[in-house]
Design goal:
- By secondary structure, this protein is α/β, with parallel strands linked by helices.
- It folds into 3 domains: 85 residues, Arc Repressor Mutant, subunit A, CATH 1.10.10; 109 residues, Periplasmic binding protein-like II (D-Maltodextrin-Binding Protein, domain 2, 3-Layer(aba) Sandwich); 103 residues, 3-Layer(aba) Sandwich (D-Maltodextrin-Binding Protein, domain 2).
- Strands 3, 4, 5, 6, 9, 10 and 11 form a 7-stranded mixed β-sheet that branches. It has a two-stranded antiparallel sheet with strand order 1-2. A two-stranded parallel sheet has the order 7-8.
- Strand 1 and strand 2 form a beta hairpin.
- Helix 1 crosses helix 3, helix 1 crosses helix 4 and helix 5 crosses helix 10.
- The longest helix has 29 residues.
- The protein is elongated, with a radius of gyration of 31 Å.
- The mean pLDDT is 91.
- InterPro entries: LysR_HTH_N, LysR_subst-bd, WH-like_DNA-bd_sf, WH_DNA-bd_sf.
- Belongs to the LysR transcriptional regulatory family.
- One of its GO terms (molecular function) is DNA binding.
- Keywords: DNA-binding, Transcription, Transcription regulation.
- This is LysR family transcriptional regulator.
């Protein structure tokens, strides 16, 4: 294996083409420098320099070898810089799980953007999945952070949960429905129509929030067809298959034939939760949590001023 120190000596002499000036730059006496270059030449099996009492020039082999030596040293420097960033928790990989109904949230997109700008050396991986599936993925390390809508049961003591916000629910209604003519709709009116949800076995936190809302208001829930994505749920509404209750951020899905109406019940909302492992959290997880909290505070300030 080549001695990196000798490669640095070679690079310095090649830049100066003068052993005296190179020894000054390297803070090394000239005789030891000459011996180190000779040792490198012996190791390589060819001369790097043609030396006379008046000049030092690179041999053809030395000129050809120079860019390779320079590339090795540059990679070593990059590795040292990256090692420092990894040690400081500003580089690495971070896997973020999210429920599909969260993907359209401004908080989600702004947090990702802010984190990427602040930590450009972190490779972000996004993993879509229902709230329930995130629990096992967090514990076994497939994802580092989960953004969902369902509180883990008390026996999941290995997961830490932080409530970020409650997102208002709105009704997604087909444009040709009589309900579309109203400025707002009540849950009682909605309960007369098939409700499009995620599949029952999907583990959706949004489903749970909606079902609790109906139970709290002692209203019957008429199950309609189901979709595994928020986009497919909206598509079913457009097809006249029922109505849907979705987070207000879903209004960004401007699907032809679908309109959105606020609910008369102002308490109708779905939680936005962030979940992490309770033990062994990385510095990057803490950094992402900090960015989330900063974006959330900026949202709150913006709402107060508007």
């Amino acid at each position: 294996m080549l001695d990196l120190r000798r490669l640095r000596y070679f690079l310095t002499v090649a830049e100066e083409l003068h052993f005296g000036r190179a020894s000054v730059r390297l803070h090394l006496a000239q005789p030891p420098l000459t011996r180190q270059i000779s040792a490198l030449e012996a190791e390589l099996g060819f001369r790097l320099f043609d030396r006379t009492s008046r000049s030092v020039t690179l041999t053809p082999q030395g000129r050809h070898f120079l860019p390779y030596a320079r590339a090795v040293l540059e990679q070593v420097e990059l590795a040292q810089v990256m090692a420092g960033k990894l040690a400081a928790g500003t580089a690495g990989q971070l896997a973020v799980g999210y429920a599909s109904s969260i993907a359209l949230s401004d908080l989600f997109s702004q947090a990702l953007q802010a984190f990427a700008q602040r930590f450009p050396d972190v490779q972000l991986t996004l993993v879509e999945g229902a709230s329930v599936s995130q629990w096992s993925q967090i514990v076994d390390g497939r994802i580092d952070i989960g953004l969902g809508r369902l509180q883990p049961p008390s026996e999941r003591s290995d997961i830490q949960t932080l409530s970020l916000a409650d997102e208002p629910l709105v009704a997604a209604i087909a444009c040709d429905s009589p309900l579309a003519a109203q400025a707002q709709v009540s849950l009682a009116e909605l309960s007369e129509h098939p409700l499009i949800l995620f599949p029952a076995d999907y583990g959706s936190g949004l489903n749970e929030a909606i079902e609790q809302l109906y139970r709290r208001n002692a209203l019957p829930l008429r199950p309609g067809p189901s979709g595994r994505q928020i986009t497919s749920i909206i598509a079913l509404v457009a097809a006249g298959q029922g109505i849907a209750l979705v987070p207000s951020c879903a209004q960004a899905l401007a699907k032809k034939g679908v309109t959105y109406r606020p609910l008369a019940d102002p308490s109708a909302s779905a939680p936005l939760l962030v979940l992490t492992r309770k033990q062994g959290r990385s510095q990057l997880v803490d950094a992402f949590m900090g960015v989330l909290e900063h974006v959330l505070q900026a949202h709150a300030t913006s709402e107060q001023s508007s």
